[in-house]
Fold this sequence. Notes:
205 residues, alpha/beta, seven-stranded mixed sheet, binds S-adenosylmethionine
Amino acid sequence: MKLNWAERWVVNNPLxxxxxxxxxxxxxxxxxxxxxxxxxxxxxxxxxAAKFLLNAFxxxxxxxxxxxxxxxxxxxxxxxxxxxxxxxxxxxxxxxxPFRDSSMDVVFGFGVLHHIPDWRGALGEVERVLKKDGxxxxxxxxxxxxxxxxxxxxxxxxxxGRFHSHDLRKELDDLGLSLYWCRExxxxxxxxxxxxxxxxxxxxx
Length: 205
Ligand SMILES: C[S@@+](CC[C@H](N)C(=O)[O-])C[C@H]1O[C@@H](n2cnc3c(N)ncnc32)[C@H](O)[C@@H]1O
């Protein structure tokens, strides 16, 4: 679902860039990757995280994708050309990823799942494209933040079926994505890393 004017203002804001820089550094400290990994970002917005992802994780390939063409146009204006040449920018629906099964080492998703009406389906797509032992680095927000008595009149999100902490954790686990690390404020949101369970772990369970 595309952002309304208020949420565009929130995400296309210098404070958001500072927050993302801190988040990406933290995620890279918690789970560094092998250089040269094949990475996908869903819901990249104007691409503010991409530069930080390149510096922190040194991927071989980074697909930065978003449903909204206007956001991708913004990314072309916002991300410096020397950074953009290391990124493949594409219009992609996070609910229907045009990538093969088990083709990505990493998927990043910052604040995107809660915008997708069938967020479970989108999470299933993340799991599908990840290789075994691949990582999902994510930030998500809960309805207590974006659908409270004030924010629900200002921000636009799918009306029902949004997830709280326990819904997200259960869905990750049901899909075989083990929460490896997280920082969470139960009613507000979560920054986390989930790992697709590998055969080795399944066999020994
Ligand atoms: C809250 S913004 C976050 C943008 C950026 N990741 C950030 O953290 O600043 C959510 C982004 O997800 C995108 N989005 C919404 N629904 C989507 C979908 N089904 N597939 C891919 N992107 C989607 C929106 O266009 C928007 O750019």
